[in-house]
Structures are given as structure tokens and as C-alpha cells.
Amino acid sequence: MHNATGETLATIRPSVMSLQCDPIYARMYGKDHREQFKRALRTALSPEKATHYTQELLEAPVLPAGGLMAVVSDSVCHRLVFPLLDEQREAYDYVRGAVTRSKQGAPKEAIVIVGGPGTGRA
């Protein structure tokens, strides 16, 4: 976690979060642990190119992950089968019809879809 301090990491360690896991699989290194991270990598990687690979990893660009909503949108928009319940289908058809009508010159209208969590308003 390239920008996290040791103090920040201490607050999210598995033991603090009441999680049980093997410490071999839950190592965390922050910006003030670079040398420890390098030593751990050198130990885990083959000795022939450990230094090279360690440096390559440390110099790799840090890019933000895609936003959750972008991933969800992509999943929904590109999913070929997305079954709708009767009321969902009715709302979908109504909205699509309103969009089509507005493209043909009919007045635009605001449509409010209501429902509880997980009812498919997306």
C-alpha cells in the first residue's frame, strides 16, 4: 500500500479487524516499509533476478482501479440476458417508450422509479 503509513496499516490489520488468517498470506507494507518489502520480495523470489524484479515492481506505475459503478454499469449493459420481473419489465418498457417518443418530438417527461434496495431500479 504505497501511500499508507505504518500507523494507518496498524488500524486495518486482520487481527484488529477480528479476521483470522495465516500471516504468510496477509503481509502489508506501507510507504515507510520499503526496505522490509524489498527484503521480503528478495526472500520469496528466485535469487537469480530477485533484485531486478523487486526494482521493477517498486517502479511500476500506480493506477487507480476502475470505479465500482463503472464496473456494474459495464456488467449490466453488456450482459445479454438480464431477466426482469413483470413490474420491472413494465417500467423498462414505459421508460424506453418515453425516450422514443421524446426523440420523435413529444414533450420530455420526468419519470421516477421507486422501490426498496435490490428491487432492480438500476
Description:
The protein has 122 residues and is mostly helical. The protein has two domains: 6-59, no CATH class; 81-116, no CATH class. Helix content is 45%, strand content 0%. The chain has five helices and no strands. Helix 2 crosses helix 3. The model has no long low-confidence stretch (mean pLDDT 78).
In short:
The protein is mainly alpha-helical and 122 residues long. The protein has 2 domains: 6-59, no CATH class; 81-116, no CATH class.
Based on Cα principal axes, name the global outline: elongated
Find the count of extended strands (DSSP E, 2+ residues): 0
Helix content: 40-55%
Order of helices and strands: HHHHH
Unreliable runs: none
N-to-C span: 33 Å
> How much strand content do the residues show?
under 5%
List keywords for this structure.
single chain, mainly alpha, 122 residues, 0% strand, 5 helices, 2 domains
List the helices and strands and how they pair.
Blueprint: H1 6-11, H2 34-44, H3 50-59, H4 68-77, H5 86-103
